[in-house]
Amino acid sequence: MSLLTTVRGWLPVQVAEAHCDIPCGIYDPISAKIAAQTVLKMVMRIQALSGDGAARANSESRYIAVKEQHAELTKREIDILWHDYFKPEHLEKHPDLHTKVWEATKLASKNKQSVDLDAAKQLVAAVDEIAGAFWSTKGVAYSDPVADVRFGS
Q1: Residue 85: domain span
Q2: Per-residue pLDDT of the chain (153 residues; tens, 9 = 90+)
Q3: DSSP state of 2
Q4: Which CATH number do you get for residue 88?
Q5: Does residue 70 lie within any of the structural domains?
Q6: What is the domain count for the chain?
Q7: Taking the model in full, what pTM does it have?
């Protein structure tokens, strides 16, 4: 008798088994896309700030906090897709997917560390590439026709 079997005999423990962290069918890269767009919008707002004093400092600190939160959210959402959704057979169709995921998470980190418009645009584009791979696994051509409207002016 193993130690684990002995402990299970003492405690009312039930074994739970699952193949993923969340129920199948609710994966969607749109959360990562919205987070990446938020990073881009905050970079644009930070760069557009003018004046000085408390009002500017207040706005700037709030924009930075939101930028960093959403860069982290982008990383987390991409990580969920990578670890919980994508399977080896998806890599056969998208052999560069590992590199794309790695580069996107690195871009999210770069956006946390800096206020770089090009890096923010690259992050949105990287998330779009991952979204394209994701949707192709479901036989759907990816598009985000409302991206500009959602992003706003």
Answers
A1: 28-141
A2: 676 666 666 766 555 444 455 565 689 999 999 999 999 999 999 999 999 999 999 999 999 999 999 999 999 999 999 999 999 999 999 999 999 999 999 999 999 999 999 999 999 999 999 999 999 999 999 999 999 999 886
A3: -
A4: 1.20.120.400
A5: yes
A6: 1
A7: 0.83
What does the angle CA 50 – CA 53 – CA 59 come to, to the nearest 5 degrees? 60
CA distance linking residue 73 with residue 33, whole number of Å: 10
62: tokens are 């709030």
Locus of tokens 């860069």: 71
34 touches 150 (CB < 8 A) = yes
Q: Is residue 63 part of a domain?
A: yes
Q: What is the DSSP string of 36-102?
A: HHHHHHHHHHHHH--S-SHHHHHHHHHHHHHHHHHHHHHHHHHHHIIIII--HHHHHH-TTHHHHHH
In a domain, 91, yes or no: yes
